[in-house]
Design goal:
- With 196 residues, this protein is mostly helical.
- It is 86% helix and 0% strand.
- The protein contains ten helices and no strands.
- Helix 1 packs antiparallel against helix 2 (15-45), helix 5 runs parallel beside helix 7 (110-129) and helix 7 packs parallel to helix 9 (162-182).
- The longest helix is centred in the first third of the chain and has 31 residues, at 15-45.
- The protein is globular.
Length: 196
């Protein structure tokens, strides 16, 4: 938050500062994205909820700052997907979906589609618990669409090594099979199981 405020204030100082700001953007972005990753990892490993919440808040602020400073580069390196993971840990599924939609708009990735699929499954599960079958099925369908988009994207993603592509493909297929099961589309889940 403080970094964003300082950055915005520096931009208002005038055209003479523009060159310095532009020159320092990569450094500040890298610092913010790294800070987000460090705090997110701390949050995932600490069992004390109050500390976990504090680390997640710090990670969220750092990722928001990184995405603010250099949106396109952030998307290229999954900055919005990282933010979405933080939101999911915070039980803020709607915010996670917004971040993932931004990620996919700016720079699609199989990771973003995978996380988006998981987010829709979480929403579907909540609607199912509440007894709203129509809405839960709609969310499961959205998950299935997202995961299938991730699988299609992965096939053309030249940035992945073969071993990484294999691991991501297995993850996407596993989540997709779970989505089919949650949606009670068992014949499709069974077909996927037989293919794998």
């Amino acid at each position: 938050t403080e970094l964003r405020k300082s950055w915005m204030k520096a931009q208002q100082l005038g055209p003479g500062q523009k060159e310095d700001i532009t020159k320092n953007t990569p450094y500040m972005w890298l610092q913010a994205i790294n800070q987000g990753s460090v705090q997110y990892q701390k949050a995932r490993t600490i069992p004390i909820q109050s500390k976990k919440d504090a680390y997640l808040k710090e990670a969220e602020e750092a990722y928001i700052t990184a995405n603010f400073l250099w949106p396109d580069t952030s998307a290229k390196y999954n900055g919005y997907a990282y933010l979405a993971n933080v939101h999911l840990e915070q039980q803020r599924v709607d915010d996670a979906i917004k971040a993932l939609e931004r990620q996919i708009t700016l720079h699609p990735s199989s990771s973003a589609y995978s996380i988006l699929g998981r987010a829709y499954i979480l929403q579907g599960d909540e609607f199912k618990k509440a007894g709203n079958a129509d809405e839960s099925n709609r969310k499961y369908d959205q998950a299935i669409t997202s995961l299938n988009n991730g699988i299609k994207f992965l096939k053309t993603d030249v940035s992945q090594t073969d071993s990484a592509r294999t691991a991501v493909s297995a993850e996407l297929n596993q989540i997709l099979m779970n989505a089919y099961i949650a949606a009670n589309r068992l014949s499709e889940a069974e077909s996927m199981f037989k293919m794998n």
